[in-house]
Every structure is written in structure tokens, then in C-alpha cells.
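Morning. Coffee machine broken again, so started the prediction first thing and wrote up yesterday's gels while waiting. Chain of 234 residues, entered below exactly as on the submission form.
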Amino acid sequence: MTDNTTNILQPIIDMQNVSVGYDGEDVLSNIHLSLMPGSFSFVTGKSGAGKTTLLSMLYLTKRPSKGVLNVFGNNINFSNRNSLALMRQKMGVVFQDFRLLDHLTVYDNIALPLRVRGMNEKEINKRVTELLKWIELHKSVYKQCSTLSGGEKQRVAIARAVINRPDILFADEPTGSVDSEIAEKLMRLLVELNKVGTTIVLATHNEQLTSTYNYQRIDLSNGTAKLYPALQRV
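Came back before lunch.
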């Protein structure tokens, strides 16, 4: 029982005096931040504040220039390429520029993470079909992604990121290219994922989003990060 309690209480992400940047210049400095498993966090800040930089470090494509970053209890400064790859298998990422394979269909883009894992096609078809209905793209299943609108590509990118049922999901402006109705549907999907245990880290500049959904907020300003807890509502 003691071991289980320890696992539950261990942060899924822990940053101690972390700095990160490009070409020898720090964008973010001296960050102290811990995120617990099952939490939902908004990352906010003005354009250029470092939201995308922070996410790229957390999903392990960029190492800190200073300090200690622990992900899943592992210090990434001492993690080799294979260890990082195993950690990434537990993550889902929604990129701001989608990064879809435009020559593939909607179905094949979403199915790709499951095929990499070696899942059987029957289970893949079940999961992909369910998600396509949820994001209202079930009529576009065989379209090539190169023919989709920006909003449609955004929905495919989110579906691809969550199809693997990751332990933690990073999303960079996931509702930025869709209308308010679809944005609400996508947020409900993320909320449901969070309810079943997926940790969510969502970068956004949408103040309506952060005011509607009462989750903790990591605000980036002047190269630093400050955590604001969710408001206690009666």
C-alpha cells in the first residue's frame, strides 16, 4: 500500500530551477513547477512568452539548458535516446502546425500511432470510427489530409494525439483553427480524457476558454512561470 501511495503522489512532471532557450539565450528561466498525474493545466501568456518552447521541452524534443526536469520520475538529462522514446510512447501531442501526413487519408493519419504499437486492425477500426464520429469527420474518412480545411486538420491532429489513450497530452492552441461549436466539442473530449486519468497540458491565448473551464493555469511572463490554482467555486 505504501508503494502505491508513493506512486500516486509522485509528480508526472517536476521542474526544479529549469531554464530553456535557443542559441544560448534563455526564453524561460528558473522555473519551479510540479504537475500531478490527472491534473489539467492551461499554459497562458502573450505571444512570444514561451508557451511552445515550454511544451517542446515537456514532450522531450528539447532539453533544459539548466536545472532538473523529471518526467514520469526520470531525469531527462540522464535519459538516453531509447529511454526518451519509451517515455514519448506515453504522450500525445497536438502541434500548432498539425504535422499530419498529407498524402495519407484521415483514417490512416489517426490510425498511425496504433499501427506503430502493433494493435490489430479490428480494434484500430473500432477506436478510429468512434473518434471520427465524435469530431464529426466520419464522412471524410477516406479524404486525403491535403484536401482538408484548417479546422478539419486540427480535429484530425487532436484525434491522432488521443487515439493512443496517452498518460499525458500536450496541446498547443488545439482550438485555434476551429469555430466555437467544434472548439466546445473538442474541449469536452479533453475534459472526458482528463476524467479517466489523462494529464492535460493545454497552451492557449483564448481567455474565454480559461474562464469557462476552471483548471489551474501556468502563466508565462517575462521569462518566468507562475502557477495559479483552480478557483474554489461554491
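Helices lie at 2-9, 51-58, 81-88, 106-117, 121-134, 150-162, 180-195, 207-212. Going to sketch it on the whiteboard this afternoon.
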